[in-house]
Amino acid sequence: MKASVASKSGKSKMKKVSPNKTKPKGLGRVERSFFPGKELPRIYTPGDTEALEPDFLPAWISKNKKSVDQDLLEYGAILFRGFSVSSSQEFEDTALSLDKNLKTDYLGTSPRNRITKFVHTASELPPHYPIMQHAEMSFLDRPPRKLMFFCALAPNENGETPLTDLRKVYEELEPDLLKKFESKGVKYIRKYDGPNASRYSLWKTKRWDEMFSTTKKKEVEKIAAKQRFQVDWLEGDGLKLTNKQVAVRVHPQAKTKAWHNHSQVFHPDAARVEYSKILKHQGNIRSLILAGVLQLLTFLKKKLVETQDLDTNVVFGDGTPISTGELKKVNEVFWKNLSVFSWQKGDVLLIDNYSVSHGRLPFSGPREILVTWTD
């Protein structure tokens, strides 16, 4: 808009009026809902056109941080869907608005590649392999408090990241079995090849230099000591890590109890048991074939590999085995409470790692899910 004012000569001239300041971002409306018939996750979607603008979501989260945190504490997972988040950097900006304390150290077993300062690929495991429900790095003394996932490329079919409320698993697991886990805890045994080994192995997921981001054994021992990992160096430059951990954790804020261990991931029968459920869920020829293959591979593994030589294993804290029957009971409760939903490009999923677990269903074709986490 322009205004006319008189000059000293008496003639009028046009004076430019300062343009309105840019409207503050993050003032649009956001709606909250759930998937029909599901209690997980809580869904946030744009409520007006302004909420569709680039950079809206980080600004809105910053202005509404208290209510977002309260929803996360109550429900355990929030899905931000339909907002303009289209790149790994925009995802990182959104993640930083959710929690400034993002981390890069990763002591898990899945191969990952770094994309930005804080963002990694979720997993480089082959697409046919199931990733069982787990709380991220539950084998550590201090697992990540929060996880954030981003769908950069949605699969055409399957490849979901299902969620399970770990508080419900704790409440619904057979009481005697829960007591056994809670009183004894769990012991993890993991083996890793050395830096000169091939990245691909039929049984193993990654090398120890990839896990610890160093080829120096003294540095590995230093990091391991902080996590209370027992370190044993093996022939051929291999590494064995052993540590005992709790099976149940108390939420640091809500003080609720939740199932919180990797028994249903590291058990020798885990993939076989999981695929029996996947077969019923997906019901296609591919899952039928893969279920059969895993049955065969598990059988061969038990015949050809001694228990002490398994790449990953989990037992009760006193060293007694967790039976396949006990594993199936745990798996049954997880699948009873499993929330499965399809990814859409641009989705951002926030998870309270002390309350909700995640996994990955097998898929084929392109799929790109990125991840970051807090302390």
Task: Please identify the oligomeric state.
Answer: single chain
String of helices and strands: EEEEHHEHEEEEEHHEHHEEEEHHHEHEEE
**What structural class do the secondary elements suggest?**
alpha+beta
Coarse morphology = globular
Protein name: Taurine dioxygenase
Keywords: Antibiotic biosynthesis, Dioxygenase, Oxidoreductase
InterPro entries: AlphaKG_dependent_hydroxylases (IPR050411), TauD-like_sf (IPR042098), TauD/TfdA-like (IPR003819)
Cofactor: Fe(2+)
Topology (SSEs and partners):
Layout: E1 2-6, E2 12-16, E3 30-33, E4 42-46, H1 56-63, H2 65-75, E5 77-80, H3 88-98, E6 102-103, E7 120-121, E8 131-134, E9 146-153, E10 163-165, H4 166-172, H5 175-184, E11 186-192, H6 208-212, H7 217-226, E12 230-234, E13 238-245, E14 248-250, E15 257-259, H8 263-266, H9 270-282, H10 285-304, E16 312-316, H11 324-336, E17 348-352, E18 356-360, E19 368-374
Parallel strand pairs: 4-5
Antiparallel strand pairs: 1-2, 3-4, 5-17, 6-19, 7-19, 8-18, 9-17, 9-19, 10-18, 11-13, 11-16, 12-13, 14-15
Helix pairs in contact: 1-3, 9-10, 9-11
List keywords for this structure.
alpha+beta; single chain; oxidoreductase; Double-stranded beta-helix; 4-stranded antiparallel β-sheet; 30% helix; dioxygenase; 8-stranded mixed β-sheet; globular; 375 residues; 24% strand
